[in-house]
């Protein structure tokens, strides 16, 4: 059984989406990042970066000892390798998936995250930062849209962990002040993934855990004033 340490944020949704798609059983341990639960010694042991998500697989493949993993990209790759699904069948397809996965965790996630931050959460309006991150987020959307003009999914005509990594970030396009209507291929992809039974289940799980926005005044102090690990 897999233990998932999770909160109802884009990086958390990636893992419930993958587990539901793969039909893997899991125990869910909510880590409420708005209350600082990510800083507990127990969770920090598992995730030294003090960020969700993290997993422990108590029955891993290839070894008998439980394995613990942090970083959503590494977790998605592990789950795909464990199940032999969502990662393509040939070496070429596998690396098409992994390049888009790396693109998401190093590009779309951080840039869209800064975009949210400067539009919604920054204590002062900084037009340069808003403009910089909006432009870059928009540019990244256009990269996906161009790819999705050629293939049904990001890495080809098969659903993969690359699509799963991107979906929770694109789903909140309005929050990022990005006009999805400009990106017809991306819109088709978004609506297609939204209606998958595994996506619906993953978001039902989220709504059982938390229906409130994660960032409120108290949480913003906790989340946006970190300069060292605790
Ligand atoms: N690169 C990490 C990012 C993880 C991350 O930023 N998680 C956020 C929630 S989406 C978090 O735990 N934030 C807690 C905090 O900022 O203290 C990954 O992909 O797993």
UniProtKB/TrEMBL annotation:
Organism of this sequence: Pseudoalteromonas aliena SW19
Superkingdom, natural source: Bacteria
InterPro entries recorded: Glutathione-S-Trfase_C-like, Glutathione-S-Trfase_C_sf, Glutathione_S-Trfase, Glutathione_S-Trfase_N, GST_C, Thioredoxin-like_sf
Gene: gst
One Pfam family it belongs to: GST_N
Gene3D superfamilies: 1.20.1050.10, Glutaredoxin
Domain called GST C-terminal: residue spans: 90-213
Location of the GST N-terminal domain: 1-87
CDD domains xrefs: GST_C_YfcG_like, GST_N_Ure2p_like
Name recorded for this polypeptide: Glutathione S-transferase
Family: Belongs to the GST superfamily.
């Amino acid at each position: 059984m897999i233990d998932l340490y999770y909160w109802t944020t884009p990086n958390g949704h990636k893992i419930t989406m993958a587990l539901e798609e793969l039909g893997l059983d899991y125990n869910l341990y909510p880590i409420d990042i708005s209350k600082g639960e990510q800083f507990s010694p127990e969770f920090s042991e598992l995730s030294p970066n003090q960020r969700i998500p993290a997993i422990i697989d108590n029955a891993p493949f290839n070894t008998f000892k439980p394995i613990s993993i942090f970083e959503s990209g590494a977790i998605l790759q592990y789950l795909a390798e464990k199940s032999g699904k969502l990662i393509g069948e040939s070496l070429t397809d596998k690396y098409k998936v992994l390049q888009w996965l790396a693109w998401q965790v190093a590009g779309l996630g951080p840039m869209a995250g800064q975009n949210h931050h400067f539009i919604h959460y920054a204590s002062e309006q900084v037009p340069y930062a808003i403009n910089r991150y909006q432009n870059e987020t928009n540019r990244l959307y256009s990269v996906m849209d161009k790819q999705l003009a050629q293939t049904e999914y990001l890495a080809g005509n098969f659903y993969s962990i690359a699509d799963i990594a991107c979906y929770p970030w694109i789903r909140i396009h309005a929050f990022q002040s990005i006009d999805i209507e400009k990106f017809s291929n991306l819109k088709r992809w978004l609506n297609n993934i939204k209606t998958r039974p595994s996506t619906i289940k993953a978001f039902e799980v989220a709504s059982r855990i938390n229906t409130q926005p994660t960032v409120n005044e108290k949480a913003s102090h906790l989340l946006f004033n970190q300069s060292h690990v605790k």
